[in-house]
Amino acid sequence: PKPKDHKLLARLGARFRELRLANGMTQESLAEALDIQVAAISRWERGQSGLSFPILAQAADRFGIGLGELLAIDDGPRVIGRRRVLLDLWERLDAEQRDAIVLLMNVMVKR
Fold first, then answer.
1. What is the DSSP letter of 24?
2. If we measure between CA atoms, which residue out of 88, 104, 85 comes closest to residue 96?
3. How far apart are CA 47 and CA 9, in angstroms?
4. What tens digit of pLDDT does each residue of 47-77 get?
5. CA of 32: how far to CAs of 39, 52, 101, 107, in Å?
6. Whole-prediction pTM value?
7. 3, 11, 13 from 31: Cα distances, Å
């Protein structure tokens, strides 16, 4: 692969690792869930090989995200984790509570 490809593979591998850890999975548990070898996970995370599309899709599903979010390599793990936490909390609120949160956020943004 070209040097540019190496950088992309490294970024994708780091993203994959961040998501795996954010989901509390080991390389072994993810490999088992995806029905692949642990060595493949290790190579991906180190940017030493590419990810096949079917495995990417399975991994995204396992992580509870879309393929687009899996490939969003510019977002850090904290951003992804915060989005997931906020979405989970938002879904627990009733309509009145959501309206109150939106009002509060609008006040905070205007400062």
1. T
2. 104
3. 5
4. 898 878 899 999 999 998 888 888 876 555 5
5. 12, 16, 40, 47
6. 0.61
7. 28, 20, 14
